[in-house]
Amino acid sequence: MDSIKRFFASRWGIISVGAFIGVFASLLQKWGNPGNMGICVACFERDMAGALGLHRAEVVQYLRPEIIGFVLGSLIAAYLFKEFRPRAGSAPIVRFILGAFAMIGALVFLGCPWRAVLRLAGGDGNAIFGLAGLVCGIWIGALFLKNGYNLGRTQATYTSVGWLLPLTMVGFLVLMLLYPQVEGEAKSGVLFYSLKGPGAMHAPLAVSLGVGLAIGFLAQRSRFCTMGALRDLILFRQTHLLSGFLALLTFAFVTNLIVGQFKPGFEGQPVAHTQELWNFAGMALAGLAFALAGGCPGRQLFLAGEGDGDSAVFVFGMIVGAAFAHNFGLASSPSGVGPHGIAAVIVGLAVCLFIGFTMRKTAK
C-alpha cells in the first residue's frame, strides 16, 4: 500500500493518470460517446439533468455512467486507503451558486476543462479560446486566493453525510438498470432518453461504468485536477499537477491520431461553435468559479466520493445550473450562443467577483 501511495504521489504517478484519462477518453469516443467528448464532466452532468427531467432539451438526455463511476471509484479508493473523511460546513450556499454558474459558463463554451483539452487533442481550434479563458478565470481566482479569499473551514461530520452523494449515484445506476432505454422510445419509466443528438451517443453501459470507476479510483489517489494544475502553476510555480494535465492532452492527441479521430480546423467541429469571444468568456466564468470553489468539476466528484459534503453541494449546483441553462436559453449549440447566454455570462462573472471580493479574511 505504501509503495502505491508513493507512486501516485510522484510525478510519474500523476502523468500515468493523465495518460490513462487521455487514452480512454478518446477510446470512449470511438466506442460511441459524442465527438471530442469522450469525457466531459459538465456535458455529462447536463445529460443527467435531462435524463431526470430537470430540463427537456431532447438531444441531451442520458444518465451518464461515467459520472456514477467517478464518484464510486473515488469512494472505493478512499476506503481502501483509509482516506474516507466525511466533512462539510464550508459556505454551502456559496458552493451551490458557484457550481451553477460554473455549469452555465461551461455550457456557453460547450465543455468543461477536460473537454476543452480533449477538443484541442481532436483538432478543434475553438478550444484554444476556451483554454485561454480558463487560464484567465483561474488567474483571477488565484489573485483572490493571494489576497485572503477563503470559504471557511470544513468540519468533520457524520459518516452518512459523506455517503449521500455516492448513494445518490448508486440510485441513478439502479434507475438505469430498472428503466433501460427502449428502442425508439424517448422515455422509459421515470427516465428520459435522447433519440438523436449528443445524448443519443454513448458507449455501452458496462464499458462507460468500468472506465469511470477506474478513473475515479486513480484520480482520487493522484489528486488529479485540471484547475489545480493551472492554479498551482500561477500561484506557486509548481508543475506537479500540470504534468497530468499535459499527459492527458498528449495521450488523447496520440490516441486520436491512431484511431483516425484527429480532424484539425475551426468549422464543423462536433458539438462546438465558432464565436471566439464567448468561447473565451464562458470558460473564464467557469474557471473563476472552479478556482473559487477549490477544484475542477472532476475533482469535485472525486472529493465527494471521499466524503466531502461541500463538493457534493457544488456537484448538485452544477446539475441544477444545467437545468437553468437549457430551460432559459443560456446554453450554446453548434449554431452559436443561446439567446440569453451572453447575459448569463455577464451576470455570472459579476456574482463570482462579488463572492471573491466579499469573502476575504481582510474584508470587513
Automatic annotation (TrEMBL):
Q: Which residues cross the membrane?
A: 12-28, 62-81, 93-116, 128-145, 157-179, 199-219, 240-260, 280-299, 311-329, 341-359
- Keyword annotations of the record: Membrane, Transmembrane, Transmembrane helix
| InterPro entries cross-referenced by the UniProt entry | Seleno_YedE, Sulf_transp_TsuA/YedE
User: Can the keyword Transmembrane helix be found in this entry's annotation?
Assistant: yes
Show the NCBIfam families listed in the entry.
seleno_YedE (TIGR04112)
- This chain's protein is named Membrane protein
The species this protein was found in = Desulforhabdus amnigena
